[in-house]
Amino acid sequence: MKQHYLAVVTLTRNAIPILSLQDGMRQFEARAETKRLLAEAALSEFFTYKNVQLVKSRWLGGDLFLSALITVDGDEHPEWELAAHAPGAAKRWSEYARLELKNTAADYSWRAGIGCVSNPTGRYRSDLAYEAAKRALLQVNVEGGAEQGRTRYVFQEMLARNMLFPYYQPIVDLNDGSVFGYEALTRFPANESFQGPLELFLFAGEIGDAYRLDRVVRELAINGCASLGADQKLFINVMAQIMEDPDFSPGRTIGLLERHHISPHQVVFEINERTSIQDYPAIKKALEHYRSQGYQIAIDDMGAGYSSLQSVVELRPDYLKIDRSIIQNIHNDEVKAHILHTLQETGKKIGASLIAEGIELEEELAELKGMGVRYAQGYLLGKPAPFPLP
């Protein structure tokens, strides 16, 4: 099925030396042929689709605006792809403009912005062109706007083309060596935009897609562990900022769990505090609802970042996951051992079990066992991997 779009490209001059401005602009405005060539070059650089119709080409002062109608197949996304293509196209076009404008406005440098909107009729509409132009100018005026467009394209492609996949790291019961549960982790092919899952989730929050990403990775986590044992737990990461919103709901999750014969009592929402929690009452209200359905709660990365004792007091989690910064070389560090002991006492007071994260050394493991820590995870006990077959 064909899809129609209307796109606007704007190429805007950066500041130029005042001495060159008057003479440069006078000569530039007089060179109609040069302006035509620059517009054609911009069209070929920015619009790489086969079915593109240039509707308008207009210079306002020294700024170029191009409007074009684009028709693509249903599985193409020009609003993402044009944004991703923009930085390279702008660089090539700027070099062409520099050479073409020699001895006139050679001191110009340019920034590019692209706006693209759905155009159901396939015909030019001034209201859609205005909306696309606003988006293009916004991208120009935002620091790093074009580069963010490329990152947004990569993000959207990863979700649209199902490039995310779940890995699972075992959480071991140190009393008997059995697998108590698994933490679901998000993985994806290496790319230049995101070095790891943390960057992916933070970017999703920046562009307002955190809920969508959360839903996708949660579904992947559940679908990927259909053979989870009836006595095992599944730990699913949730950003605290998502749970602050009253629209966040696990209702969709229950349907997935039922499909795979997994009980809500087996699911632990692992709260990540990538930024400080702003609305504890909202989260506490949400947690009351989740707990009434059988879900449990863990606070991740205790001892690092924003994870705080206030969260423990306010949220009363079922599990405290102790960050590797506390666990690393704990066998040689009395202060770390004392901190862990304090967290153990806190856990006892609120009925929360401790899970030590990041175990890499036998000495660390021995120290934790000696201190009475029951649950642990880390490379020493098991690396993240696809869910094990039954």
Distance between the termini: 42 Å
The name CATH uses for the topology of the largest domain is: TIM Barrel
Q: How do the helices and strands follow one another from N- to C-terminus?
A: EHHEEHEHHEEHHEHHEHEHEHHEHE
CATH architecture of the largest domain: Alpha-Beta Barrel
The structural class is: alpha/beta
Radius of gyration: 27 Å
Average pLDDT metric:
82
Main sheet record:
8 strands, mixed, barrel
Give the gist of this structure.
The protein is of the alpha/beta class. It has helices at residues 18-30, 32-46, 78-100, 126-141, 145-160, 197-206, 210-223, 240-243, 251-259, 280-292, 309-315, 324-327, 334-350, 362-371, and strands spanning 2-13, 52-60, 63-73, 110-118, 165-173, 179-187, 233-239, 267-272, 296-302, 319-322, 353-356, 375-376.
Helices and strands, with pairings:
Elements: E1 2-13, H1 18-30, H2 32-46, E2 52-60, E3 63-73, H3 78-100, E4 110-118, H4 126-141, H5 145-160, E5 165-173, E6 179-187, H6 197-206, H7 210-223, E7 233-239, H8 240-243, H9 251-259, E8 267-272, H10 280-292, E9 296-302, H11 309-315, E10 319-322, H12 324-327, H13 334-350, E11 353-356, H14 362-371, E12 375-376
Parallel strand pairs: 6-7, 7-8, 8-9, 9-10, 10-11, 11-12
Antiparallel strand pairs: 1-3, 1-4, 2-3, 5-6, 5-12
